[in-house]
Design brief:
Blueprint (H helix, E strand, L loop, with lengths): L1 H22 L2 H4 L11 H27 L1 H5 L3 H24 L8 H31 L1
Helix pairs in contact: 1-3, 1-6, 3-5, 5-6
Amino acid sequence: MKKATSIIYYVTLVISMLTGLWHFFVPHLYNWYGYLPMQYENLIVGIDCTNYCFSALLFGSSLVLIFLGKSTLSSNFESLVFYTFLTVVWVFKACLVAFIEPWPLEPVPAAAIGQLVASIILASSMVFVALRLWKARRKH
């Protein structure tokens, strides 16, 4: 079961890191600015700032945790707290899209459903790993 936990740990972090990388390009891929009147420059700057900072933090945190994998998987307290924090971020994201503010089904229903399912699977997998690691730490 240790090997499965290790594999899930790295897979979840790679997915999280790729999500952060992908988010750098989302405004241009989905023409976010086409939906906003250009006279609201402050709104555009605010959206860009929020998106790019989120992207950098998600990408960077995931990458750092990949580098700290050996430490985290051996139940190092600081590394485990850091992984748990990222897990909480993903659980919050999954709760947002599942219960609080679901992604609109228009114009692309598959994107909304895909984001919902992916967020829930990723958050659940990360919770599984975090609980296993905290349990292992408790035993020592």
